[in-house]
Amino acid sequence: MSQPQPVFDHPPRPMAQRVGAILWPSFFAAGVATMVFFAYVDPLVLRDMTFPQLEITRELGYTVGFFTFWLATSASSLFTWVLLRPASRFNQPLPHEK
Question: 32-65, pLDDT tens digit by residue?
Fold first, then answer.
């Protein structure tokens, strides 16, 4: 006996749309966070305080900072996406409860 296909409250989104919904807003948030952070913190002073033995240029400091902020904001967006998934897709009765 075949199981009927579950009816979702809305169809699943394409993978590109899901990834874009996570990465695109986090890109903008990382840009704003980078501008605000580096308006007050010089990457060379930060390097001297943390890793003085490394030869990090100011541009590399900005780049590493941006990608660090992007990673943090995309992780936040991903966690929000996981929490907001519709429960109807995941709260199905167990096979022996039907």
Answer: 999 999 999 999 999 999 999 999 999 999 999 9
71/26 Cα distance (integer angstroms): 8
Report whether 64 contacts 14 (CB < 8 A): no
Q: Which long-range contacts (CB under 8 A, 24 or more apart) does 86-89 make?
A: 86/8, 86/9, 86/10, 88/6, 88/8, 88/9, 89/6, 89/8, 89/12
- Record the tokens describing residue 41, joined without a space: 């913190």
Nearest to 46 by CA among 26, 20, 64: 64
Task: Give this prediction's pTM.
Answer: 0.74
Higher model confidence: residue 82 or residue 6?
82
**Residue 78 to residues 18, 51, 54, Cα–Cα distance (Å):** 10, 31, 32
**Distance from C-alpha of 64 to C-alpha of 51, rounded to nearest angstrom:** 13
Give the distance, in angstroms, between the CA of residue 5 and the centroid of all CA atoms in the same chain.
Answer: 31
